[in-house]
Amino acid sequence: MRIIAGSHRSRSLDAPAGLATRPTSDRLRETLFNVLAPRIHGARFLDLYAGSGAVGMEALSRGAAEVMFVERAPAALKALRGNLDRLGFAAGLHVHAGTVGGWLKQFSNGGKAHETRSTFDFVFLDPPYEAGDEYAATLNLLGGRAASLLGNEAWIVAEHRRKDCLSESYGALTRFRLLEQGDAALSFFTRSAEEQLETSG
Question: Which of 70, 91, 104, 123 would give a disulfide with 146, using CB separation of 3.0 to 4.6 Å?
C-alpha cells in the first residue's frame, strides 16, 4: 500500500499482520479520492474501522485539516500508529482505540462534546465484510442518534462488497451515489435536504 497523492505521495504504508483486517486497495482509494478531491482541502475527516489508517492518511496528505481514526483491533492499531509515526503526521489527527459503536454512542442526541470540537465533512466506514450488521448499526447511528457529528453537507461513504446491497436510506441518511469497482463498491450517503434545513434553521 502507498499514499497516492498529495504531500506524502508514493510513501509506503504497512498493513496489519494477519487476515483480520482488509485494507482498502490503492485503486479503490484513488477512485474514492477522485470524487472527494474538490472538497477535501481543509475538511474534517472521520475514518471508522480505520485499520492501517490508509484512507485517513490519504486525506491528510491531500490537505484535510483534521482526521479522527477509530479502530479497536490491536494489530491494526499498531500498524496505524506505526504508519503515522513513520510518515511524520503529527498535527490534525486523533486516534481512538475502541469500538466504532461505543465511540458514536457517546454523542447520541448531541451529547458529550467529542474530541475534535466540531462536525465532520466526511465519514468513511469500512467494517470487515463478514460483519454485515456493522453497516446498518453504524449508518443508523450516523443518521440518527449521533447525527450531531455531521456537518450540514457531510458525505458518508461506506466501502462494501459489490454483491452486498446496502439500503437506500438509514435514518436521515439517503444514498446519492454508488460506485462499483471489481468485487468492491462505494456507497455515498448524505443527510436529506429536509434534515439539513432543520439543522441549519
Answer: 104
